[in-house]
Design a protein that fits this description.
9 helices; 40% helix; binds pyridoxal-5'-phosphate; alpha/beta; eight-stranded parallel β-sheet
């Protein structure tokens, strides 16, 4: 099951890359393992998966402790400031920074650990009320402020597109995020590069890749539905 899913997702990624004239190596697949037990993650690991995404701090920290140390953990969910300390030295990339206050807390914890925290800015491109992320018009100002924090490296942008029946509906959302990243890139701000575009989930990662995604976050497509018991 898991193996077949991985093969299918990999094939879909390759085809989307081909359609877009992109090299497969430009796209990182993040296996979103939230709610899944460590045995399932270990199984994915044994099949070659090394990049996992979690949306809860405690769950990521727990899994980090027991699973192999060469896993690259991405924190993709909303991050509360009082929890930054638990993942600052565990997450290779925090996808969900959407305020200066959160960035300042990350700066403080990164400094304590003498490391540079790599982050993405989460943009609420589709302006969904239920979602975190800043609005596009506030992005530039936030980037400029975060860029001043010496222990933070901004690597790019992230968005969570709406859940839609037809993934084509999200194409303009992905296009908009890409455009924002090009605009910021052009400004050449210190400590800021726009090499990462984290966009696309199970429902729409192929369209996201066609629109320039460099990281896709796929959960259900790899591990199956989360509502049901999973072996
Ligand atoms: C759960 C989650 C995903 C994966 O969703 P699927 O639809 O299962 O692929 C991707 N990104 C974020 C931020 C998530 O919380």
């Amino acid at each position: 099951m898991l193996q077949n899913n991985l093969i299918q997702v990999e094939q879909n990624i390759e085809e989307a890359c081909r359609r877009a004239g992109r090299d497969r190596s430009e796209v990182t697949l993040i296996a979103v393992s939230k709610t899944k037990p460590v045995e399932t993650l270990q199984e994915a690991y044994d099949l070659g998966v090394r990049v996992f995404g979690e949306n809860k701090v405690q769950e990521m920290a727990d899994k980090y402790e027991v699973l192999p140390k060469d896993i690259r953990w991405h924190l993709i969910g909303h991050l509360q400031r009082n929890k930054v300390k638990y993942i600052i030295d565990k997450a290779v990339l925090i996808h969900s920074v959407d305020s200066l206050r959160l960035a300042q807390t990350i700066e403080k914890e990164a400094k304590k650990h003498n490391l540079t925290a790599h982050i993405l800015i989460e943009v609420n491109v589709a302006r969904e009320e239920s979602k975190f992320g800043i609005f596009p018009e506030d992005l530039e100002a936030l980037v400029d402020e975060i860029a001043k924090l010496p222990h933070i490296q901004v690597d790019g942008l992230m968005t969570i597109a709406p859940f839609v029946p037809d993934p084509e509906e999200n194409r303009p959302v992905f296009r908009e995020l890409r455009k924002l990243s090009v605009d910021i890139s052009a400004k050449k701000v210190d400590n800021v590069n726009m090499s990462v575009l984290s966009m696309g989930m199970t429902n729409d990662y192929q369209v996201a890749i066609e629109e320039g995604a460099t990281m896709v976050r796929v959960g259900t497509g790899i591990f199956g539905a989360r509502n049901y018991a999973q072996v």
